From TrEMBL:
<dbReference type="InterPro" id="IPR038408">
    <property type="entry name" value="GNK2_sf"/>
</dbReference>
<feature type="domain" description="Gnk2-homologous">
    <location>
        <begin position="130"/>
        <end position="237"/>
    </location>
</feature>
<dbReference type="InterPro" id="IPR002902">
    <property type="entry name" value="GNK2"/>
</dbReference>
<protein>
    <recommendedName>
        <fullName>Gnk2-homologous domain-containing protein</fullName>
    </recommendedName>
</protein>
<keyword id="KW-0677">Repeat</keyword>
<feature type="domain" description="Gnk2-homologous">
    <location>
        <begin position="26"/>
        <end position="124"/>
    </location>
</feature>
<feature type="region of interest" description="Disordered">
    <location>
        <begin position="243"/>
        <end position="265"/>
    </location>
</feature>
<feature type="signal peptide">
    <location>
        <begin position="1"/>
        <end position="23"/>
    </location>
</feature>
<keyword id="KW-0732">Signal</keyword>
<dbReference type="Pfam" id="PF01657">
    <property type="entry name" value="Stress-antifung"/>
</dbReference>
Amino acid sequence: MGCLGLVVFISSIQMHLLTIALGQNFLRQFCMRERGNYTNNSAYQANLDSLLSAFCNTTVDYGFYNSSAGEVKAIALCRGDLTPNTCRKCIGTSSHELRGLCPNYKEAYIYYDNCMLGYSNRSIFSINKLSPIYISAKLENFSDVNQTNQVLPKLLGNLKDEAASGSPLRKYAVGEATVGFETIYALVQCTPDLQKQQCTNCLDDLNVLIPKNFSEGKNGLTAIGPICNFRYEVYRFYQSRPDAPSSFPSPTGDAPSPAASNDTTGNGMQLNLHACFEYCRD
Ligand SMILES: *[C@@H]1O[C@H](CO)[C@@H](O)[C@H](O)[C@H]1NC(C)=O
Ligand SMILES: *[C@@H]1O[C@H](CO)[C@@H](O)[C@H](O)[C@H]1NC(C)=O
Ligand SMILES: *[C@@H]1O[C@H](CO)[C@@H](O)[C@H](O)[C@H]1NC(C)=O
Ligand SMILES: *[C@@H]1O[C@H](CO)[C@@H](O)[C@H](O)[C@H]1NC(C)=O
Ligand SMILES: *[C@@H]1O[C@H](CO)[C@@H](O)[C@H](O)[C@H]1NC(C)=O
Ligand SMILES: *[C@@H]1O[C@H](CO)[C@@H](O)[C@H](O)[C@H]1NC(C)=O
Ligand SMILES: *[C@@H]1O[C@H](CO)[C@@H](O)[C@H](O)[C@H]1NC(C)=O
Ligand SMILES: *[C@@H]1O[C@H](CO)[C@@H](O)[C@H](O)[C@H]1NC(C)=O
Ligand SMILES: *[C@@H]1O[C@H](CO)[C@@H](O)[C@H](O)[C@H]1NC(C)=O
């Protein structure tokens, strides 16, 4: 029951799922069994199909999709630096994979390095939506943990403010800080429909949920929820920042993101709190 303290801690903020993995390739699905099934050839399935295929067909693209059909609601968010083509490709893959991984589930989520996608029959994508959460940390420490402990919170705090102050089309900020010979690259993002304060609250809540003994000193961390996320690494994992939503760079084709290939280090150890999920259900 090594995780009980954590579960008690997070269960005060309604239902939570929390996955923690160390240094593994970034990809996780959440099939919400307790939210019920739809049957084949039902209206639910038809609505879900049309929603997901509409996502991939969208031409005006700022990396955020939120729409509903019948009782189905769906949401998708791409990392803010992706081109529309790369974003659509990620969402297309996500849709396909998630339908296969969570067949007939009314509510399900999938998180990738480049995008997240979820659907439900509930109005789940509210301002307080914090679950399911995915957290992963690198195994190695920063080269100067003490110095980084001074610098990193300031960097993340600045990026949080910048992202939260973003436009209704994109709430995304990236930045870097140098400690000695090491450069830390960080990214912070909220779904752009959130108000400034809602974005700030989401990121603060997400940060609070990360066990400090898990993340402290580690030279890379990824924390993702349905409506906000942040990440830092000691290498540049994002593309240069798009200037503004209206000057989204032209599509670059189907090349996989360098970040995705860099994250497949798979360096061993994994701490998985799936066993704790049962305690988290409401
Ligand atoms: C963190 O501390 C909690 C108890 O406070 C413990 O249950 C957990 O195993 C620790 N996690 C790590 C990664 O050391
Ligand atoms: C959902 O589907 C699973 C597997 O097909 C089945 O075992 C379960 O009883 C279903 N649950 C509901 C609420 O229909
Ligand atoms: C969603 O579907 C579940 C299972 O079928 C049902 O119990 C629940 O009432 C539905 N929720 C909404 C908001 O329709
Ligand atoms: C629904 O359809 C899929 C694919 O056609 C099939 O694999 C699955 O068994 C069906 N599920 C049910 C509950 O009939
Ligand atoms: C999406 O595009 C495909 C191929 O062009 C088309 O078959 C499908 O009907 C479109 N879906 C929607 C919802 O527009
Ligand atoms: C999605 O759209 C609905 C309806 O317009 C809205 O209430 C909600 O705040 C939007 N955002 C999210 C993240 O669900
Ligand atoms: C880091 O800080 C701790 C506590 O402040 C101190 O004990 C330790 O010596 C410091 N380590 C280095 C390498 O400066
Ligand atoms: C990594 O940093 C943590 C937190 O400062 C420290 O407890 C741990 O001993 C460090 N591990 C190594 C291998 O330096
Ligand atoms: C991948 O990571 C390595 C070491 O962390 C770094 O040297 C390299 O530049 C990174 N590659 C990309 C494409 O970010």
